[in-house]
Write a structure and sequence with these properties.
This is Clan AA aspartic protease. InterPro entries: Peptidase_asp_AF0612. Helices cover about 10% and strands about 55% of the residues. By secondary structure, the chain is mostly beta strands. The chain has a single domain, classed as Cathepsin D, subunit A, domain 1, CATH 2.40.70. It is globular and about 35 Å long.
């Protein structure tokens, strides 16, 4: 899987996400190694995709504060295969977390326009 580094020095990956067998939407998400979940999306995107609500979870932000997240189920295409994951509703930009990256290696050429490569660990 390949992405890019944007002008804000963020590693970006385009990911196809949707509900079960429904059509997928391509979302540009920031890779966040400090986020232990799978994926976060804005509530408006979750609504437009029709992602079902699953449960509420408490998360700790980078500043140490705790917040409650509504969690939803989604299907993403990851490494060419559909995978069912948890999605946290958040007003922030979409984020890819470490749970989605688990079992993969991440390489980032940290320069504007640099390449982001994610490959399975053999």
């Amino acid at each position: 899987m390949h992405g890019f580094v944007n002008q804000r020095c963020e590693a970006i990956l385009r990911i196809a996400v949707g509900h079960a067998d429904a059509p997928k939407q391509i979302v540009e998400a920031v890779i966040d190694t400090g986020f232990t979940g799978f994926l976060s999306l804005p509530p408006s995107t979750i609504t437009s995709l029709g992602l079902p609500w699953y449960f509420r979870d408490i998360g700790t932000l980078g500043d140490g504060s705790e917040v409650v997240f509504d969690m939803h189920k989604a299907t993403v295409i990851w490494d060419g295969k559909p995978q069912i994951i948890d999605v946290a509703a958040s007003e922030a930009d979409p984020l890819i977390g470490m749970s989605l990256l688990y079992g993969f290696k991440l390489h980032v050429d940290v320069t504007t326009g640099g390449t982001v490569t994610i490959a399975a660990i053999n």
